[in-house]
Amino acid sequence: MKKLRNLKEISDGRLYDIKDMVKADAGDCYGCSSCCYGVGDLVELNPFDIYQMTSCLKLSFDELIGEKIELRLSDKIYLPYLKMYGDLEKCSFLNEEERCSIHSHRPNICRLFPLGRVYEKDDFKYFLQVGACIKPNLGKVKVKKWIGIANYNENKRFILAWYEIVKALAFRLKFVHDNQELHEINKYFVDSFYRIEIKDGEDFYSRFFNILPETKNRLGII
Questions:
Q1: CB 146 within 8 Å of CB 22
Q2: Is the pLDDT of residue 197 over 60?
Q3: Which InterPro entries does this one have (predicted)?
Q4: Which are the contacts of 5, defined by CB distance < 8 A and separation ≥ 6?
Q5: Is the pLDDT of residue 3 over 70?
Q6: Where do the structural domains in the chain lie, given as residue ranges?
Q7: CA–CA separation, 100 and 34 (whole Å)
Q8: For residue 116, what are the β-bridge partners?
């Protein structure tokens, strides 16, 4: 989540929409996996990321914890992040050929790179992180094609809702100083959103928005 006043330092100074062309295409990377090292602090995973991973690997959220992902405390909220290994901090999902083993189900932050998002009111735009990708002469590609996410409108609605949830909960927890209460709030937060159960006739998005009102109420956020 980058603030507009910082964008000039890391971007080309432009904001892009989903139909815009942007110089982000690394040409299938050709074996390069530089952006898959040392990013454990950067790749925060949202519930849809976890749903994608568990669906792809046929593993539960709890089976991913420890080996593939780790819970970290951020603004008093426990959130899952990609786990890195070794002195080079290699992503846990890189295979022996240095390719992503869950590429078609990779996290949204990985999917965006070298793009990022900037949030404005009830919307967001994309920006290009200049120099973030080590490949020279990146090609032009439409933002929508580069992201390559199915059901884009539903996904965007979810991303915006999730951004507001995390922001509101971080503000709420500023005023919670009892460790037991913090633990109980975080447990309910993780259980509700990251151990989400998809019922028959539902997809991820419908299930998420079905549980959202009651979950927000119990978390004490608007």
A1: yes
A2: yes
A3: Puta_zinc/iron-chelating_dom
A4: none
A5: no
A6: 27-113+150-219
A7: 12
A8: 127
Residue 66 tokens read as: 């420890």
Write b or e for each residue in 16-51: b if 16 or more Cβ atoms lie within 10 A of its Cβ, otherwise e.
Answer: beeeeebebbbeeeeeeeebbbebbeebbbbbbbbb
Instruction: Decide: helix, strand or coil at residue 104.
Output: helix
Q: Please, what's the b/e burial string for 82-115 (b: 16 or more CB within 10 A of its CB; e: otherwise)?
A: bbbeeeeebbbbbeeeeebbbeebbbbbbbbbbb
Q: How far is CA 183 from CA 10, 162, 173, 188, in A?
A: 36, 20, 11, 9
219 and 169 Cβ atoms separated by less than 8 Å: yes
Mean pLDDT of 18-26: 95
DSSP state of 31: G
The CA-atom distances, in angstroms, between 25 and each of 13, 41, 63, 112, 134 are 18, 24, 34, 11, 12
- How far apart, in whole angstroms, are the C-alpha atoms of residue 107 and residue 49? 5
Rounded to two decimals, the pTM is 0.92
